[in-house]
TrEMBL record, chain B:
One of its GO terms (cellular component) is nucleus. This is Eukaryotic translation elongation factor 1 epsilon-1-like. It comes from the Eukaryota. The lineage of its organism: Eukaryota, Metazoa, Chordata, Craniata, Vertebrata. It comes from Sinocyclocheilus anshuiensis. Residues 58-179 form the GST C-terminal domain. Pfam families: Arc1p_N_like (PF21972). InterPro entries: AIMP3/p18_C, Arc1-like_N, EEF1E1, Glutathione-S-Trfase_C-like, Glutathione-S-Trfase_C_sf. CDD domains: GST_C_AIMP3. GO terms for biological process: positive regulation of DNA damage response, signal transduction by p53 class mediator.
């Protein structure tokens, strides 16, 4: 009984199994048939494509440009695509910013630097179905050469910088193909802060940007920031050269720290060690002693401060000025403030497009300044702060929040974003600062501020070897280490003053940005050494 | 422990400041009671009065200034509400709560001169005493952010006879931060 039962059960099971297997087989067969069908279809399509593609030589991937031929072909820049070029047949090299296929058409946005233009590819006389498909499948950020006819458009294209024209593409070739997956999307990287939150869209955080700096630098905002920064440098040079300054180059590897050893980088230098210059201070002054009278220097400056703030970098570009004067160091202040004003004016007049572009992502009030520049004394500033309820001592240095508050108070009272704070307490300045002849507690030193943040620190320097020695001793500095510096004042040194400006800070504060890393191409801070 | 004794000291100084504001000739003597050091007033002709608000209300009646507790039923209710708010929410609130309190109070005061509308009441005095230690710590920017509190606070600290034991807080009359620049 039991045996039979077992057998019966076994048979049933077998039967059930075979039924299942049958079904499975059937399904597989169906699948295979479908697959074969698909393949056949694909093959036939491909064949069709190959057979029918009349536009085959109008698109494709170019062989790597190895400078094999000199093509006599003028490439028009995207920013030059204006209605004057309407109906012209031109070649353009640009990146694919976005591409959107829609049936028989494909819309591309082509980008070169901060300029964009819409391009249209439609099945017709010039383009085949396959060509449109090819264009639609191109990866974002690939670089392409396009031959097209410029056409005026009826309705402005709001999403592009070239709003009055579009390109009707006739040929399209890939010069360099981008990988399909980008580490960050350019649209996300230019979205104004806060706007993304409302629409639930992504914005890119700063670290991601900096990790993929090459791509981040392609955004319209970055392009504008660094074009403007280049403008700052150029305006700085032009203005000073016009004033009779000489550009100098100073060493960055130095034997002794200029202002105490705490915040300098040490580098090993053969059998001994050296420091990275934290300012070209000493060399500027030696040039003055060597009768160069008015010098400036643009170059890297290093600070080994372990401060991770929005406005500190460990390496930045310093714009340094040193100048001999006749009788009063205000001659130098006037010269520097005038240079700054020339820079502000130059930026305002020549870089309006860039300023507007940055403003789209980071809105800020236009930068305001007075002519002549407002000069406040430290005492007045302390009085203003006290009137606003801040408790501080007469000879206390300004804290960062107080600096910012003072900036707001000055803006409210004088309507300027740029001013000079003169006559700092001697105690808070370096040893080479000239004391104030009328009040030994103060000094002939000054800071300059943009939007309430310090951009320049300067002073009249002690040009008398004896007083300099005294001051150095007062600060407890090892005289042996600065012997060469002090000695340079022994053989006749003219009275002189100067100051150093941080390029990144000027750019940041002029544009009203919030982080100095935004205005440093490859920022260096205590936590970042790459890229 | 130190903070608690500070608070109780404050409450006692507050009551004596209130007495002076009310023009009471003879200063009362107070003691404190329990772990929370609640102020106690031993009354000559009756049982002891316990608690800041209770004693303060009593002093107001003694000085024959009942209008300071509200001159209508509605106003009396509002004054009571703020007196209660003072001792339950404001006193000993945590740092996170401070922000919420400032935000809410700022909004409440947007269309009011005094806490109970357009008349000065005991609620203004006790809220001023209670919030002083917070306002004195605010940065210029924050005082501007809580503009209505600052306006009300400045008004009360200049109200004749109120300030007494507390240092004046500097208030700027001009806005120095552009609106929305926080």
């Amino acid at each position: 009984m039991t045996k039979e039962n077992v057998q019966g059960a076994g048979e049933e099971e077998q039967q059930a199994q075979s039924k299942k297997a049958l079904k499975k087989q059937q399904k597989e067969a169906e699948k295979a048939a479908k697959k074969a069908e698909k393949q056949a279809k694909l093959a036939s399509e491909q064949q069709e494509a190959e057979e029918d593609d009349f536009a085959m030589d109008r698109y494709g991937i170019c062989p790597m440009v190895q400078s094999q031929q000199k093509l006599d072909r003028a490439l028009v820049r995207v920013q030059d695509l204006t209605p004057e070029k309407a109906e012209q047949q031109i070649w353009v090299r640009a990146r694919i910013h976005t591409s959107r296929a829609k049936g028989k058409q494909c819309f591309l946005v082509l980008r070169h630097q901060q300029f964009t233009v819409q391009a249209l590819l439609a099945v017709g006389d010039c383009a085949s179905k396959q060509m449109v498909k090819f264009a639609a499948n191109l990866t974002k950020e690939s670089i392409i050469d396009v031959e097209a006819v410029v056409k005026k458009v009826e309705q402005k294209i709001e999403s592009c910088s070239q709003q009055d024209v579009e390109l009707h593409v006739e040929r399209i070739f890939v010069i360099s193909q981008s990988e399909a997956r980008l580490p960050l999307q350019l649209e996300d990287a230019v979205r104004p802060e806060g706007e993304g939150d409302e629409e639930g869209r992504a914005t890119v955080n700063q670290d991601t940007r900096l990790d993929n700096r090459v791509i981040d630098l392609r955004t319209t905002t970055s392009q504008s920031i660094f074009r403007l920064q280049s403008g700052v440098c150029q305006l700085f040079r032009d203005t000073l050269i016009n004033k009779g300054f000489v550009e100098i180059q100073t060493p960055k590897i130095i034997s002794a720290a200029s202002e105490g050893g705490a915040n300098v980088f040490t580098v090993s230098y053969f059998k001994t060690s050296a420091y990275l210059a934290q300012s070209p201070q000493l060399y500027k002054q030696m040039c003055i002693c060597a009768d160069f009278d008015k010098v400036f220097c643009v170059g890297p400056v290093f600070r080994a401060e372990d401060s991770n703030t929005h406005r500190h970098l460990t390496e930045f570009v310093g714009l340094d000025i040193e100048m001999a004067f006749n009788y009063h160091y205000h001659e130098v202040i006037d010269s520097i403030t005038d240079t700054m004003v020339q820079i502000f004016k130059g930026l305002r007049d020549r870089f309006q497009t860039e300023i507007q572009t940055v403003n789209k992502q980071y809105p800020s009030e236009p930068f305001k300044f007075l002519e002549p520049t407002l000069r406040l004394e430290y005492k007045e500033a302390v009085a203003m702060l006290r009137a606003a309820g801040v408790e501080m001592g007469d000879e206390e240095d300004l804290s960062t929040p107080n600096e910012k508050l003072l900036g707001r108070l000055v803006k409210e009272k004088y309507d300027t974003d740029f001013y000079v704070l003169d006559k700092y307490p001697l105690a808070v300045r370096p040893f080479y600062t000239m004391p104030d002849p009328n009040n030994p507690k103060y000094s002939n030193s000054y800071d300059m501020f943009m939007r309430g943040e310090e951009i320049l620190s300067g002073a009249q320097r002690v040009h008398d070897a004896q007083l300099l020695t005294e001051r150095a001793m007062h600060h407890g500095i090892d005289l042996e280490k600065i012997k060469a510096y002090i000695d340079s004042f022994r053989y006749g040194a003219p009275p002189h003053a100067g100051g150093g400006i941080g390029l990144e800070r000027v750019t940041m504060l002029y544009l009203g940005l919030h982080n100095v890393r935004q205005t440093s191409m490859f920022p260096r801070d205590p936590k970042r050494l790459t890229p | 422990m130190c903070q608690v004794s500070g608070v109780i000291k404050m409450a006692l100084r507050e009551l004596s400041s209130l007495e002076r504001f009310l023009g009471l000739k003879k200063p009362n003597k107070y003691s404190s009671q329990g772990g929370k050091k609640v102020p106690v007033l031993q009354n000559n002709n009756g049982p002891a009065l316990i608690g800041l608000v209770t004693i303060a209300s009593h002093l107001v009646r003694e000085a024959k200034r009942p209008e300071l507790l509200g001159d209508s039923a509605e106003r009396r209710a509002v004054v009571q509400q703020w007196l209660e708010y003072r001792v339950t929410r404001l006193d000993n609130c945590s740092k996170e709560e401070v922000k919420v309190i400032l935000k809410d109070l700022n909004q409440y005061l947007e269309d009011k001169v005094y806490l109970a509308g357009n008349v000065f009441t005991l609620a203004d005095i006790l809220m001023y005493y209670g919030i002083h230690h917070i306002v004195v710590e605010l940065a210029v920017q924050e005082k501007e952010r809580y503009l209505n509190i600052t306006r009300w606070f400045d008004h009360i600290q200049h109200y004749p006879g109120v300030r007494h034991h507390l240092p004046p807080v500097v208030v700027l009359r001009n806005r120095v931060y552009p609106s929305g620049h926080y």
